[in-house]
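Q: Can I see a sequence and its folded structure?
A: Here is a first one.
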Amino acid sequence: MTLDKTPVEKLTEEQAAEELARLATEIAGHDRRYHAEDAPTISDADYDALKLRNAAIEARFPELIREDSPSKSVGAAPSSAFAQVQHARPMLSLDNVFSDEDVVDFVGSVRRFLNLPADAELVFTAEPKIDGLSMSLRYENRRLVTAATRGDGTTGENVTANIRTISDIPEWLPADAPDVVDVRGEIYMRRDDFLDLQKRMAESGQTFANPRNSAAGSLRQKNPEVTKSRPLKFFAYAWGETSEPLAETQFDAVRRFRDWGFPINERMKRCASLDEMLAQYRAIEADRASLPYDIDGVVYKVDRLDLQERLGFRSRSPRWATAHKFPAEKATTVLKAIDIQVGRTGALTPVARLEPVTVGGVVVVNATLHNEDYIRGIGNDGQPIRGGRDIRVGDTVLIQRAGDVIPQILDIVPEKRPADAKPYEFPHVCPACGSHAVREEGEAVRRCTGGLICPAQAVERLRHFVSRNAMDIEGLGEKQIEFFFNAEDEALRIREPADIFTLKARQQASLTKLENIEGFGAVSVKKLLDAIDARRTVETSRFLFALGIRHIGETNAKRIARHFTSFDAIRAVATEAEIPAGKGDRGNSAWQELNAVNGVGEVVAEAMVEFFNEAHNRDAVDALLREVQPADEEKVGQVETQFSGKTIVFTGSLERMSRDEAKAMAERLGAKTAGSVSKKTDLVVAGPGAGSKLKAATDLGIEVIDEDEWFRRVEG
């Protein structure tokens, strides 16, 4: 296992892109060994750490998400040793959560999507998460016709002959079963059966690492007689395609499987509240060691199937279910020092330097401390954490590698605190440039005010500017940027983006030639200068993203570029926009226009305005525009419908769907959704209680419809 210890918040875009590429390759290899070869080379906790590291980087850099991202994949490609089966409905995986707070967030996200108030009934099922091999059993006219592994989620391996040897799985279903139904569940092996099998196989020199590998390897035998000799079991808990509804709830549908002769897990329980869900999790966790089979968590699912239908799916997982994994390993060690790192945006982030300690098979030497409040024992809500205990250099600390891929310090051991340990004083000046470091109201982060004079920010801004998803200038990596930034000779120096594009001219006029410097050669220099020249024309979205404006990631850059088409238009509206003075002030028309871009709220709009209000930023952009020409961006629709390309605003209290659900529906139909009304708005869908947006639409003569009319048009 290869897990970078660099905190995610400290990664540059180039570093993040490189690590995402490495993680995609490494995780794909582990998926192949786990799902297809039944020979994993790392523990589940280590695998989760890799997946979570990937997810954490993607969350910070959504614009870097790869087509082969592990977050988009399910399982692994089916083995060529078996015929392939196309699943009628994909076999998706579940998102994982690791803490009670994560479960609170999951339940909250379901309520928000469904637009359910906090006191509305919302029932979940909670059941053990079996550590086995996922299986789909297809019955037609109530007879088993095919059995397939998950594979890559779309295509699995045909293991029908082997499945027919497992006594838990009925060949025929009773008369009340649907004509077509895909019953899904988990093939597993009990621990006592696994130990007995290991004893028998030891005589022939063959062994499996654990019951899960043993079950998967036993099922993937070319000879069904070998599978028949192995003690495999099955739990049914889900379904794919079905020709008629099975029930109204998840709980009743699974109980129906039991009536058909399938084993189900009797530990599945309905939970009418968050407290009941967590109580069931703790009860199952407490019994984990005594259960006859391996589990690695508890699965929560929305019970009502009509709500599951409304919630739908993300690319690789359902919105209506999640897996609450059991905690990973923890360890204690000594905090040797606290270092402050300065990021591209000037954020000062504390990093704990630890006495090396092994946690879950990985040697940990660094851990995140989040921010100055966390060190003082204060949470994001301003309330005490860890009982109000602060963290000091010299403390013995408890660390964990679970929910955070970057190890984090959970607590200290008070009785082991040295007598001379002093409270940590968070610096109020930037350690990189000495500029004042300020903390804005409502923010947990302290930031350097040095801007472009701060070497930490300047180098990071340049790294970002040339990174793959920004200007993408090949040959200007991290080492090269630092070399040019620190160069004493002016002919080689790069301190701001425009300097990159004047490097060739400065070289030609200078006696100092780059090709004569160690580490460079005539060929590599030519390639570098050609790569720079190749980026003198670039898409507006790339150009905007490359500027490093706070809150403008690749996704928002694309949204803004597609909305305004040209960089000149973007700059004009951001320069003309006036940030509202206070409550009730809607700002001028340029401000409203900027806020009307789908996904751009006041925080993003304010960052845009502040960037172009700064004289040194305008000067830097002007210098850059003398060298680079941003190309106009095409406006891209999604599907051809009556709503394609139209801008729609939803306002008021929608009664049949949540605001998020409404926006998702409109975007699936090719429309753009905006958060405010402007002259470019095409349609406003207004529910009860609509206020200023409805008035603005009326004043501008924009068509307004109610929620019922919206559904009539959608159905049409």
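Q: Show me another, different protein.
A: A second, unrelated one:
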Amino acid sequence: MSGKTLNFKRSQGGQAAVFVMLFMAILLVATLAIFKSGKLTSNKMELQNAADAAAYSMSVVEARDLNFAAYMNRAIVANEVAIGQLVGLASWAYHFRSFADYLDSYNQLFLSPVTLGASNAFVTPITSAWRTAGTTAQNIMKTIANIGTTVIHNINKIYGFAEFGYHTVSIIFAVGVLDDVIDQNGPPGTKISDFGIMSLIAHIATYGVLPNLPGDQFATAYQSSTRTPVDEVGGEDDGYARLAALIRDSRDPFTMGRGWELRPPGFPIDRTGDDAFDFTIIDVAIARVGVTIEFYFDISLERKGASELRIVLPNRGNATAANYNWSSADTTGLFLDIFLGFDVWGQLCDPIFGSGCTSRGTIIGGELDFGDSTVSLKGRFAGINFTIIPEMPFPTSAPFASGFAEAGKNSPNNLGTQHMLLASLGGDIETDHYGEAANNLLAWTSPGPGVPTPIGVAPSAQIYETLLGSRVNKSYSGLPYYVDTTGNESFLGVGAPNLLIGLVQDEPDYDSTTTYAEPSGRFGLTENLADQELAVLAKSELYFSRPTDSLAAHFHRGDGQAEYGSAFNPYWQARLIETDYADRLLALLVQQKEDFINTGQSFNLLFGSLLDLLP
């Protein structure tokens, strides 16, 4: 062996560089992959934020639209009640003046014949002065009512057109806001997907802007010119039935039921129930026979009246919102209320064993009920009840004053008069309407001056409508336009009150944001996005929420009841909600264009194989 020494350290130099170079390549690829996945996630988050912001912003615009409609509808309700008040004041003025006519009538029919004309000396000056004062009040009130109802009715028309126009413009503005929010918050190239366009059209259609489309609408505008079949007026499908009901329920005490009662001291005389006259006629060991007599008598001077928003329908064809009109009636009369009942009763007793007497049994009895503009006579024999005279309309009051006023054009074929006549007979208008004014039967239906009849010559509420020109505003054309919710919900989350927004970013747009040179060949990294685009889905909701916490007591309902959403209370808000399976399934089918055919065939084969294994 020679004296040369091997240098092993020098022979190993540079071997680690190979491993470092290989590791650096792997590290570079891993770093690039992490960067690309981070960029993909960042883009996805930016796209999702844009979708959330767009959905929420559009729902906020719609919430403001419904709240604006609520303020307008509240103003319309308040103004309609004011119209009812003005019509009521005109009716009161006619009622005030008519007292002179009734006093003249009683003087001519009773006082003057009995006093041989002496009563004319003091009755005539009173009626003359009263008629002058009443005519002055009538003219003043009618003028005020004419001007007031005309102005208020036109203001309501403006309110109706304002909320209808705002409702329409809100959708256009909401679409504009949607586009601006997407441009300002989304990554480059962000656009609404095919599914987003479809859901947006469905939402706009169900929000009530596009009429005559299939399906239910969440909100809609009710047009006063829309014709409704007469048989459907006032029903669930009549859009004005709800507005009319709210107006009627919002009336103030003067409009809802004005009046007073005056009774002589000691009235009413009530000897019914425990206070009835009861005494025994026969009392022997084995039996008892007695009589029970009930008696009620009341006399009172009563003034009754109210204003009503009612529907005067044509004889045939269709009706519109113009068929709703305000009318008011007032009557004053001397009311009698008499009830007389008796029962002859008997009992069997047991003197031997001392078990007492049986309960009373009616042998014969009957009752006469005279009051509330009706009379009836009933009988009883051996425990069997039978009717001699059924309850039927009958004058139970002497009229002293009456008045009527109406806003609107003359009813076709005097249907308004016919309806009022039927009210006293239990017809189309119930007698509890108009503050029970129709219960004063003669003041309600008796003919007026110039109509020959033995009943009398004082004008009635009905005649004030037909003969004395009591219409205070012939230009009143019924209820105005208004916007309201329908209560219908969307199907599968597509349509109002929900809003689905689908956004996509095409892969070329995504790649255009890359500022570095991507590797190619074996080191190339591709995203393999579904349908060559990045897609997200966002969902928002319109919801109604009236504050109920202790810090918002001024918002609480006085009756403590829960309240459903409508366009009559401004408590609409917007919020983002989670998408459900149906939303994501529709988005995958339409937005991502996923192929579920092969998947379905695989399931069919699987289930088919399982079925073959069954015995």
